[in-house]
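Render this sequence as a predicted structure.
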Amino acid sequence: MELLAPAGNERTAYAALHAGADALYLGLTRFSARDGAENFSAAALANLTRTAHLLGAKVYVALNTLVKEEEVPAFFTAARTAWDAGADALLLQDVFLGRALKEMYPEVVLHLSTQAGCCNVHGARFAAECGFSRAVLARETPLADIADISAVMETEVFVQGALCTCFSGQCYLSSFAGNNSGNRGRCKQPCRKQYRTDRAGYTAPAYALSLSDLSVGERVKDLAAAGVTSLKIEGRMRSAAYAAAAVEYYRALLAGQPSAEAFSRLMRAYNRGGYTRGLAFEQDKTLLSRSVQGHIGERVGTLSRRQGRWFCASSFAAERGDAFKLLRGGKEAGGARFAEEGKGGFFLASGDAPAEGDEVRVTLDVSAERHALSLRRTRPVRVFVTAKAGEALRAEAEGVCMTGDVCERAVRAPLSAQDIAACFQKTGELPFSCDVRTETDGVFVPRASLNAFRRAFLEALAARLAPARAPLAERVPPMPAFGTHKGGMSAVILTEKDVPAGADMVIWKPADYADMAPPAGAWLYLPPLFTAADEALVAPQLNKFAGVYCEGTYGVPFARRHGVRLFAGTGWNLTNRIAVAGALACAQFAALSKELTLAEQNVLAAEGTFALAAGDIKVMDLSYCPFERTCSACDRRAFYTLTDEAGRVFPLRRYRAADGCRFELYNCAPLAAERAKASVLVDCSAGGTAYFAALRAGTPVAGATRGHAARSLL
């Protein structure tokens, strides 16, 4: 299997590469879902791809943000730039832009980003139809479904790093709470804040939505058995020490070699509240990190007083520059830094208020960073050099042959075979390790000439082994033309049987997908996570519905298979005309992205489009239980609330799917926006049908927000 490492900057990229990564993934300065990373210029990318290719590794470029209408030309320019610089594949969230790119440039290799939410064979099949060869699977995909998808196309599965609270590509909390969209690479991580929940045992402030870091460890063997192509390490915002340690750890696991030291360095580099095996292997007790937020490193000892100073008895070789976090009763109590060595441990200095017995955890280990930057990976090359009097200087390797000036017989101090070998072992920035074989009969070659010949030969060898790519021709995709659509048709999403008067269409959300009794003529709401078990539960009941409203592009093959009508939901994140036209070509109706302004919606208002104009704003889909599956003590309410540190209250809806309870989080304020030219979509999931009545009557809704109607998401 491929071992794929993150690279937020050049330092991290080369550290991961030299640690043994088979491939790297990174972003350019635009359209990267990690906008806060340093990312790469075209020149830096070209240099990196050459080095990677010389080492037999690949480089994938993430262009995986949502692309708005006016950005489409710049997106295609960025795609050409990345491909021309040597990228081995491009990662995209927008499946329809991917299809357009593939039609223009068939040679481009496309991987579907995890932001697209591929979680079942239907999603994989549709991605393949659109020209993608690999899908980066949603982190919530069960192991059995991973195996099924791997039979359809290449799969890339996360094995290490941060876990998003929300199902990939469906998080809008940062967007609506702070105008910074996760779908645009600018998530402010409100899920890492403290919340109070109105359920017994969970009322105290806690990191109620914060998940532990993923570390599947030995379970990579299960992923191998499932046919996974690539093991992905998350962390484009993390350090070179983290990337190198993660690569070394999984490289050791895959090779059946000792991995404890690499895992220790990995914990010191980044470890958010312990590790979880993740949802692919079912929810475990370590999934949530409710007590501690952020990096807590590795435990190295406990705090005591010695000679009036704070001391940690430990075998850890601390040094100047190391930093530590103190835990008390499992919660953060402050920080500390290395002061000086002591017998059997080291002294610490802290500006907080330490106490005896505090747990000491190292969170910055300068030796680990030093180790990461010291790693060196080379490509062995056997070079044959001939230097004979009266003949041209000659070098050969890997099918490359170069001749230089004619060698003269030495009068004194002839050039030895050892001299020639030593010269050719100087490879500069090129990652070669030269085994030099020489034939010489005692010639004179000026050192400057020999060095220049060696540099030219090694550059020619590099050009042969990692050739530059012919640039793609500059093309612009044809943009669909939409006629005038004045809207008027209304659809309502609701969880209750009371259908509001005047609704043209009802989309019904069941409380339990195993027991559905919908109102007549309703469409069935299908969530973004839809497993094979969910399909087995739903399929026999589809005859009760007029069609399916689906939050993922998996709905296209699903609707075909079951012969039902399709409504492309807001979860498709349609933000440009290419995407809207693509959706309407395979669905009867399509909802526009929730993150567009009114003006942006109007540009995309083709016949059959809908725009969310009023009601509840779903900001998260939780595919796990935030109450840690304490089922025996659960009151099984339909709704709970989360209250943040500012006192804002967010409704939390519970429903049951094939694997048990899942949850939806709604914005603290309902939506009351101006109506776009598209048809109207009203969400009554949490607040009831009063929102639809208010929209019809034109009456204001107390405490409502206009959402992104008037201001663009950043």
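Summary. The first strand starts at residue 2 and ends at 6. Residues 379-465 form one domain.
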